[in-house]
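Hi support team,

I've been running sequence recovery on a batch of backbones for a student project. Most finish fine, but this one hangs at about 90% for roughly twenty minutes before it completes. I'm not sure whether the input is malformed or the queue is just slow. I've pasted the structure tokens below so you can try to reproduce it. Let me know if you need the job ID as well.

Thanks,
M.K.
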């Protein structure tokens, strides 16, 4: 299973069994084709249990997303003392590696499809706003740490994190919706930005 949802490999209770079934059906069918019946096909218990806990597929999918976000917040706490310049390089590698940070291509494609629902569904908009804030918070922390460590220039951490967040979303969408690969050119230009506008040593020597 995808590393971001590996906590569902061995469900500990009925809710996690339902969420694992949701994950399996979601990655196979995507948002448009997923149904309660298709989730039930992956669920080892009675279909009636699904309706006992959820009103429909959107309620179930939103609970699944909330569960994933809760797990991410628990598993990725802010850790002081890490070299911010090395950390930001790891972030960039993840951004431009196809399938990262989610390694399952089917799941990545389904998540992009699901994000599109936020355009007309306030519940999904609220969720993806929260996930974007979660990601931005961590990048902002790295930027602030780098400024304190003297490896980053005196940039605005919030604005820089916002740029990274927009790149995250755009790259994820590009990777699963287009056959034309522009990632190499995009990475080259983004790394130039990081060298000239963020890293202090590179800026001092330019």
């Amino acid at each position: 299973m995808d590393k971001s949802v590996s906590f569902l490999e061995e469900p500990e209770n009925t809710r996690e069994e339902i969420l694992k079934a949701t994950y399996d059906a979601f990655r196979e069918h995507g948002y448009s084709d997923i149904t309660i019946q298709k989730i039930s096909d992956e669920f080892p218990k009675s279909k009636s249990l699904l309706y006992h806990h959820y009103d429909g597929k959107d309620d179930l999918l939103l609970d699944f997303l909330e569960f994933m976000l809760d797990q991410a917040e628990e598993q990725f706490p802010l850790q002081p003392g890490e070299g911010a310049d090395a950390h930001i390089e790891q972030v960039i590698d993840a951004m431009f590696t196809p399938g990262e940070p989610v390694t399952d291509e089917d799941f990545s494609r389904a998540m992009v499809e699901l994000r599109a629902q936020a355009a007309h569904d306030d519940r999904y908009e609220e969720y993806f706003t929260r996930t974007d804030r979660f990601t931005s918070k961590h990048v902002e922390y790295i930027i602030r740490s780098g400024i304190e460590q003297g490896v980053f220039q005196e940039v605005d951490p919030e604005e820089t994190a916002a740029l990274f967040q927009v790149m995250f979303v755009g790259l994820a969408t590009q990777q699963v919706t287009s056959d034309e690969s522009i990632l190499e050119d995009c990475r080259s230009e983004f790394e130039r930005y990081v060298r000239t506008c963020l890293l202090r040593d590179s800026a001092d020597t330019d």
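--
Follow-up from support: It reproduced on our side and the slowdown came from queue contention, not your input. Residues 137 and 171 are 19 Å apart (CA to CA). No action needed from you.
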